[in-house]
Design brief:
mainly alpha
Length: about 260
């Protein structure tokens, strides 16, 4: 006797209902192009999420707010305070929305909206992290060039994720990584500004990149119902954020380029 795989009818019905509801959402928003959403079969069919899904960023959110307030308070000079505020706001947006999006089971319309915001916030945080680093560590000309590049790419990336939220991971994940490593064009200047801070920046960048790889290939996935590949990805983003936050303390309390 041979065993044959039969797809659970609930799974099939779940996909059909998801597609129908997505089309209904599009009908209510005709100005936006329709791209079908691909989601986890189990999550779509049963409305279940891994036990840890969303909690990592939910816990990080208030810590990021507190760290940002202290950073802005201690930062020396107007330029340092304003640029660190950009970092704080973008980190709040990412961790706050990510916690909402991943922690709860939303209806199709809200789920798509939060997903668009979630993926767009990655571009915002990358640009938001570069803002104080460039302002505080680079000469004016280099800072202007680098920030023009990362914010332009960030805004284009946001439009890309808003209008093509179902784009394959192999397409958009490398964009995040390449944008994140834009600093290599001025790596010498960054290290000349603060070696300890830049070591932390590189470590954080590696963590972000490894996390992006794990997110892209969905491996390793040790405990799918509790702590899977997505939770590893979220954990690495928190470690990377912490590294970058500490690095900013180094340069904001004593700006290397002498801004005021």
């Amino acid at each position: 006797m041979t065993a044959t795989h039969r797809q659970h009818p609930t799974e099939t019905n779940g996909h059909v209902q998801e597609a129908q509801l997505e089309q209904a959402v599009h009908a209510e928003q005709p100005g936006l192009p329709y791209f079908p959403i691909t989601a986890s079969k189990r999550e779509v069919a049963l409305g279940e999420k891994p036990l840890w899904r969303g909690w990592i960023h939910a816990v990080t959110f208030p810590l990021a707010v507190a760290a940002g307030i202290v950073l802005i308070t201690l930062a020396q000079g107007t330029a340092a305070k304003l640029s660190c505020a950009v970092f704080m706001v973008t980190s709040m947006l990412l961790f706050g929305n990510s916690a909402l999006y991943h922690r709860f089971n939303w209806g199709p319309r809200m789920k798509v909206t939060l997903k668009r915001i979630d993926h767009s916030n990655i571009f915002l945080l990358i640009a938001g992290t570069y803002t104080p680093l460039s302002v505080l560590c680079l000469p004016h000309r280099q800072a202007t060039i680098l920030l023009s590049i990362v914010w332009s790419v960030g805004l284009l990336g946001i439009l890309f994720r808003v209008f093509w939220v179902s784009a394959p991971r192999w397409l958009y994940v490398p964009i995040y990584v390449l944008m994140g490593w834009a600093a290599v064009m001025y790596l010498g200047d960054f290290f000349a500004a603060s070696i300890p801070a830049m070591i932390l920046i590189v470590v954080g960048g590696v963590c972000y990149s490894v996390g992006a790889l794990i997110y892209g290939i969905k491996k390793p996935n040790p405990f799918p119902g509790v702590f899977g590949f997505h939770e590893i990805f979220h954990s690495l983003t928190v470690v990377a954020f912490a590294c970058h936050c500490v690095a900013l303390y180094f340069v904001a309390l004593n700006p290397p380029v002498g801004l005021s």
